[in-house]
Write a structure and sequence with these properties.
With 143 residues, the protein is of the alpha+beta class. It is built from 4 helices and 8 strands, in the order βαβααβββαβββ. 22% of the residues are buried.
């Protein structure tokens, strides 16, 4: 069954925020990846200094079987600074690769692509974009 989860973005506060949410909502951390964990060939394409290397690239808090809260830290060297209160996206976790591709093609049409739908180094088929209404979406299908 396809899942829709909230993905939050922070400016260096992801780990503290997610730990705070865990104390209130419960659950267990499933993934904690830092920018320094990126393969060196990818890291060389992105300017990440020592201060940013410990920031959270991806973190997931499984609250229960149906709800996962996801988060990451932006890096100042990777683009525009975050505006507090607007740093979220809806993360779609489809049931199949075909469904991921269909949803991506339809939702991203007329929108703004940040990362095209491609297989990433962690093994997932992933995309990041805003639809034509300005809503931020992520598609994440584990291959």
């Amino acid at each position: 069954m396809m899942q829709l989860n909230t993905y939050l973005a922070f400016d260096g506060e992801a780990e503290a925020a997610m730990s705070f949410y865990q104390t209130i909502l419960g659950g267990e951390f499933v993934d904690v990846l830092r920018y320094k964990d990126m393969p060196t060939d990818l890291a060389s394409d992105i300017e990440i200094d020592e201060q940013q290397a410990d920031r959270i690239m991806h973190m997931s808090l499984a609250i229960n079987e149906s709800n996962i809260l996801l988060a990451n830290d932006s890096c100042p060297s990777m683009g525009a600074p975050l505006v507090k209160g607007t740093q979220y996206a809806i993360c779609i976790q489809p049931d199949s690769e075909d469904e991921a591709r269909r949803i991506y093609e339809q939702l991203s049409e007329g929108g703004e692509i940040e990362m095209a739908l491609e297989v990433q180094f962690w093994g997932g088929l992933f995309a990041s974009f805003k639809d034509k209404f300005g809503i931020a979406w992520l598609i994440d299908y584990p291959m």
